[in-house]
Design brief:
alpha+beta
């Protein structure tokens, strides 16, 4: 079993910024949270520290996590991103039981962190178009944009969006149960800086979106 945070560490966690999870503390305090997987150090200046999803869960629950596996979270796929370790929901995953306010907060935090990564990696400081990380993690990036935009991924027995890779460079396919879902997903992705086109599967005749990160 992992040890619960110390009183000083708990104060840092409780006083982190509510949406982004940005932390304030001494270098030693922040480094200790990083070692325990409760925070991460942003790779770009000014190298601020942010809560990981595990840190957010501790703040919400008021209790320690159990094993290292529980601390990391059990919902695959988990991807290393500029916003920390985050489970991007691409659609079709088994029910993880992680919906609700805690999940909504994690999604907001991840999206805010990604916007900050855009700001710091674009020379003009813009946040209206995808950054380099998104271009190398297309499926996860598109799925995060959709969930942050309020869309629900498909489950084993529920309808929703599904994001998948395609043979085309820098393009993902987004499928949904109907035209209304596709139109809403297209609007969200365009607002998030993606170029979106509508296509028809030649075999099934099903409509789907083809989305690519916008460069300018």
């Amino acid at each position: 079993m992992t040890r619960p945070p110390t009183a000083a560490q708990r104060r840092l966690i409780d006083t982190a910024e509510p949406v982004t999870g940005r932390l304030r503390g001494t270098e030693a305090q922040l480094a200790a949270l990083v070692r325990r997987g409760l925070a991460f150090r942003h790779p770009r200046p000014p190298h601020d520290h942010f809560l990981t999803p595990a840190g957010h869960r501790i703040r919400e629950s008021g209790t320690q996590t159990g094993t290292a596996t529980e601390t990391a979270g059990a919902a695959p796929p988990r991807q290393e991103t500029g916003t920390g370790v985050f489970a991007a929901r691409v659609g079709g995953e088994e029910d993880t039981g992680a919906d609700g306010p805690a999940r909504a907060r994690e999604v907001r935090s991840a999206w805010e962190g990604l916007l900050e990564l855009r700001r710091m990696t674009h020379r003009d400081g813009s946040v209206d178009r995808p950054c380099g990380w998104e271009r190398t993690h297309l499926v996860q990036a598109a799925a995060l944009a959709l969930e942050a935009g309020g869309h629900r991924p498909a489950g084993p027995d529920t309808d929703g969006y599904r994001v998948s890779a395609t043979p085309q460079p820098e393009a993902v396919a987004v499928r949904g149960p109907d035209e209304a879902t596709l139109s809403a997903c297209a609007a969200t992705l365009e607002k998030a800086g993606w170029q979106v086109g509508r296509h028809t599967d030649p075999r099934t005749r099903a409509r789907y979106l083809l989305a690519s990160p916008r460069r300018v």
